[in-house]
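Tokens for chain A. Residues wanted.
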């Protein structure tokens, strides 16, 4: 195994040791696919990224692995990798990652001295609208816990997730994936990621509380999910959840796991095209190398 350097960061973190952990490996062109998969399992974070090369002018070639295998896109790995490239590779305040879904641009915004990394995600695809009763069974809830005024829908900006509207945080806290119902759901729908949410945050400064479950990817629960929140931003704008086709909201996630996370969402829907941006803070935690 080559002696690749790696960095550990917390993404969408409210402070260090919060948010979603990420390992970023340098010089990944020296690693085989099997070695990358093994390292992702060894790190055992929801995702690990591998920078294979690139430049600020042409973008950086990056691959993303969960413990279950490679995926084409994920949000917190995009922002965390961009932060590592900016701090350690002089990539600048605007950096493009060449991912499995194509180039994803990331920019740094500074407000009141605080930096946040923002990515522009691909335009969402609004997929199948699902049965409320079926998804309630998957999450071990009663259908009365779901807000049936809003659809349960598959949305994707590169990695699909199921948007699941709940009434309140009590229901959100009681979500638990039923293994048998989940396997049946996967066979029928083919989407691993479940994103229940409610308009009942802990902090009045936030707008939404959410969780994300992806056991099919080897991630029982994820503390902060940029891809699913990008899908969610599109969902909010398309369905006028807040009464408008343009949204600026803050989502809290990860509190049930002891990893509090804040994700900033922007989206606009002109009836034809939906534009989505997702932002958050990145904390640097550790550096090391393979032995």
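Reply:
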């Amino acid at each position: 195994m080559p002696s690749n350097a790696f960095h550990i960061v917390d993404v969408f973190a409210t402070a260090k040791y919060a948010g979603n952990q990420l390992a970023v490996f340098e010089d990944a062109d020296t690693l085989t696919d099997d070695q990358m998969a093994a390292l992702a399992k060894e790190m055992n974070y929801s995702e690990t990224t591998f920078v294979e090369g690139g430049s600020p002018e042409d973008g950086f070639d990056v691959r993303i692995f969960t413990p279950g295998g490679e995926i084409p896109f994920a949000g917190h790995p995009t922002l965390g990798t961009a932060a590592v490239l900016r701090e350690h590779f002089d990539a600048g305040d605007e950096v493009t990652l060449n991912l499995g879904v194509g180039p994803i641009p990331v920019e740094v915004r500074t407000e009141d001295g605080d930096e946040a990394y923002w990515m522009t995600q691909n335009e969402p695809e609004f997929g199948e609208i699902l049965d409320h009763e079926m998804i309630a069974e998957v999450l071990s809830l009663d259908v009365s816990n779901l807000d049936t005024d809003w659809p349960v829908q598959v949305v994707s900006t590169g990695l699909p997730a199921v948007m699941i509207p709940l009434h309140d945080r009590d229901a959100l806290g009681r979500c638990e994936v039923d293994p048998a119902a989940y396997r049946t759901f996967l066979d029928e729908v083919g989407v691993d990621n479940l994103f229940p949410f409610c308009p009942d945050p802990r902090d009045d400064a936030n707008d939404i509380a959410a969780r994300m479950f992806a056991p099919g990817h080897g991630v029982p629960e994820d503390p902060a999910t940029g891809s699913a929140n990008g899908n969610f931003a599109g969902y909010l704008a398309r369905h006028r959840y807040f009464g408008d086709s343009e949204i600026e909201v803050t989502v809290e996630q990860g509190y049930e796991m002891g990893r509090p996370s804040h994700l900033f969402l922007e989206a606009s829907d002109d009836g034809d095209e939906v534009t989505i941006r997702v932002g958050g803070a990145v904390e640097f935690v550790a550096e090391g190398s393979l032995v």
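DSSP finds six helices and 19 strands in the chain. The first strand starts at residue 5 and ends at 11.
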